[in-house]
Amino acid sequence: MKVGFEGKVAADAALVLLVAADAGMSPAAEAADSASGGQIGRAMKAANFTGKKGATLEILAPQGLGRDRVLLLGLGEPGKADALAFEELGGKVAEALLLKASAAAVDFSGLSGLGVAPAEAAAHLALGACLRAWRHDRYRTTLKDHEKPKLERLDMVGAPGAEAAFAPLEKVADGVFLARELVTEPANIIYPESFVARVRAAVEPLGVAVRVLDEAEMKALGFGCLLGVAQGSARPPRLLAMEWNGTGNAEAVPTLFVGKGVTFDTGGISIKPAAGMEDMKWDMGGAAAVAGAMMALAGRKAKARVVGVCGLVENMPDGGAQRPGDVVTSFSGQTVEVINTDAEGRLVLADALAWAQKEWKPAVVVDLATLTGAIIIALGHEYAGMFANDDDLAERLLAAGEASGDRLWRQPLGEKGGAYDKLTDSQIADMKNVGPREGGSITAAQFLQRFIEDGVKWAHLDIAGTVWKAKAGPTHDKGATGFGVRLIDRFVAAHLEA
Ligand code: BES
Ligand code: MN
Ligand code: ZN
Predict the structure, then answer these.
(1) Residue nearest atom 22 of ligand 1, based on CA coordinates
(2) Does the C-beta of 372 come closer than 6 Å to ligand 1?
(3) How far is the CA of 109 from the centre of ligand 2 (A)?
(4) Closest ligand 1 atom to 267 CA
(5) Catalytic annotation, residues
(6) What is the pTM of this model?
């Protein structure tokens, strides 16, 4: 689907008209209503359509307009319609028209009193429509014509300035799409090496500097935790580092994002049950979000210095696999007793976090990981869990979550060496990789904290419940959400570029 900004509504386009709460027709809707001899208003009455936020009403072949289709779109209280609300409205447009119309146009003419400027409203509506329209049909060879997306063009009409406002948002959408693609592709297609290849092809042309560590380099550096996870797989691991510096200052202190990239998680020798194991193809959702965010930031030329690091492994149980009870030495020098090989994400992140801090000396570190099933028990699929060692960073991330729709809920994090840490004390090593069942997401976060250097502001986002959705949402189809890309983009825009 292509977004356009034509001055006029094309003759063959489905016409999308906004209606505020209590049936308040927009000027464009009023004009269409009178051209149709009042047919639009009659249809609204007959359908009891009052302009409630997100409601839609399709009117086919209305008289006097020469179009096959008019879509009324409920705006709710105009003053309360902010950028995120317009994204959700855009999602409704895509949902209603994707399979039905080849062209559509939203007429903003004469609208005022919105919660954001009309240009922003139109740009965010277009973003929402693009996000909701994304699908991954690559392996579906028998789709019938009526099952295939038809909408090729969506025009925003009567909102001067919308094109410029949409330009950076389109780059953000590209980043979301990269993340969704990586998450959706199965593990026979996306494994550490192919993950690197796909991401490299997407971000290098945008000016992102890419560095990759292979197995031998990681061995030489002492990545015992990450390599222990990787050793049961025929697929070699990779560490992918991406740097974008849009500040013009080579010495600017970078902000670091680190992603868990387990391209498939069988559990290893502590193998998972068969039912639902296919979901573990998306155990690289954190790495996908980091890669997508780098693409978004470089694409829109963010004025910030940002480093993204992805720890990429496949967790498999072959004859070389690590055993429960094995002790490994991390890059940091700390030793870990691997009680459960299914608690592998924290092992991968331990080395990725420690190495990246040493390499880049960031002031702020945020990691994203599909780390624990326990966070899904705690929060369901609406919020990701956030653990932070700094209140100011936590507040900023929460605000970015609300603004972007990638919402976070803060969880408790204890002191280093405190009561929560005692739960992962080991008899034989510095720590073990699992605690008791209770508080499983917290002990996982505490484990990561042991690899965060003193003085570094750090947040861990457990996104196990938000990377993949069984049901479609306002701005995503069912499946991969791209969670984290817009969150990082917002966070960077509000706090590093402002
Ligand atoms: N990748 C899983 C976490 C997960 C579970 C993500 C379900 C999405 C849906 C992680 O590697 C894992 O297996 N965690 C274990 C930890 C346990 C062994 C302490 C879990 O949550 O059961
Ligand atoms: Mn696991
Ligand atoms: Zn995992």
Answers:
(1) 373
(2) yes
(3) 52
(4) 13
(5) 272, 346
(6) 0.98
Pocket test for ligand 1, best of 269, 342, 381 (most atoms within 8 A of CB): 342
Token code pair at residue 387: 């653990």
Whether residue 489 has its Cβ less than 6 Å from ligand 1: no
3-class DSSP state of 474:
coil
Which amino acid residue places its CA nearest to atom 17 of ligand 1?
Answer: 343
pLDDT digits (tens), the chain, 498 positions: 999 998 889 999 999 999 999 999 999 999 999 999 999 999 999 999 999 999 999 999 999 999 999 999 999 999 999 999 999 999 999 999 999 999 999 999 999 999 999 999 999 999 999 999 999 999 999 999 999 999 999 999 999 999 999 999 999 999 999 999 999 999 999 999 999 999 999 999 999 999 999 999 999 999 999 999 999 999 999 999 999 999 999 999 999 999 999 999 999 999 999 999 999 999 999 999 999 999 999 999 999 999 999 999 999 999 999 999 999 999 999 999 999 999 999 999 999 999 999 999 999 999 999 999 999 999 999 999 999 999 999 999 999 999 999 999 999 999 999 999 999 999 999 999 999 999 999 999 999 999 999 999 999 999 999 999 999 999 999 999 999 999 999 999 999 998
Round to whole Å and give the CA distance between 340 and 344.
8
Nearest atom in ligand 1 to the alpha carbon of residue 374 is: 21
Q: Whose CA is nearest to atom 8 of ligand 1?
A: 464
Annotate 196-230 with DSSP letters as a single string: HHHHHHHHGGGT-EEEEE-HHHHHHHT-HHHHHHH
Count of beta carbons in the 10 Å neighbourhood of residue 14: 24
Indicate which ligand has the atom closest to the C-alpha of 433.
1
Could you give the count of Cα atoms lying within 13 Å of 272 in the half-sphere of its Cβ? 17
Quote the ligand 3 centre to 371 CA distance (angstroms).
6
Element (H, E) at 287: helix 285-299
Domain residue limits, the chain: 2-152, 171-495
In sequence order, what are the residues at sequence separation of 6 or more whose Cβ sits closer than 8 angstroms to the Cβ of residue 438? none
Element housing 384 (H / E): strand 384-388
How is domain 2-152 classified at the architecture level of CATH? 3-Layer(aba) Sandwich (3.40)
Hey, which CATH number is domain 171-495, 2.60.40.10, 3.40.50.2300, 2.60.40.790, 3.40.630.10? 3.40.630.10
